Amino acid sequence: APEREELTWELFGRAERELSEQIVASGWMPDLIIAIARGGLIPAGAIGYAIGIKAMGAMNVEFYTGVGQTLPEPVILPPLMDASELPGKKVLVVDDVADSGKTLKMVMEMLRHEGLDLGDETIAVDARSAVIYRKPRSVLTPDYCWRETDKWINFPWSALPVMTPHAQDQADVAVGS
Ligand code: 5GP
Prior knowledge:
Blueprint lengths: L3 E3 L2 H18 L5 E6 L3 H11 L4 E11 L2 E9 L12 E9 L3 H11 L3 E3 L2 E3 L2 E9 L9 E5 L3 E3 L10 H10 L3
Parallel strand pairs: 1-10, 2-3, 2-5, 5-8, 8-9
Antiparallel strand pairs: 3-4, 6-7
Helix pairs in contact: 1-2
The site of guanosine-5'-monophosphate has 18 residues, from strand 3, strand 5, helix 3 and strand 10.
């Protein structure tokens, strides 16, 4: 099996503090944090608490269907975020990892360059990106990054099998309840 980078819950606690320190040290404080769901949700929430930001949003983007398996391009899935809150705000976009970097690149370009299509007008947003990990091949250099690795990363929130009612039945049988 290929070697993995293992992020434990304990190490994540250090990572989110150190990443938050980078953001504060840069002097650029966001008004709003957007998590790329689902991988960015837990990092974004932790950073929100660390730097005292309560205004949180999420964008649901899907790209990977398995280890190293991707769709042709990242796609935005419902529920869609309310974009009317973004104009004039400093927005921090948070994800778990910039691997190919395509997910974050798509989101950042949408926010920074093309802007958001708000019906009759298009507005560019002051946006920066933060990730826990960056891979060397990433097409985008995140503004804030904790560590670099070229390995597949195991994140604590996706390390265990997904719970299903059926799997719970099997577990109950196994412990004899
Ligand atoms: P990218 O668009 O930068 O290639 O990656 C998009 C998403 O794929 C990441 O936000 C993450 O959820 C998932 N992903 C990419 N590389 C890894 C990895 O090494 N480990 C895990 N667990 N997920 C990854």
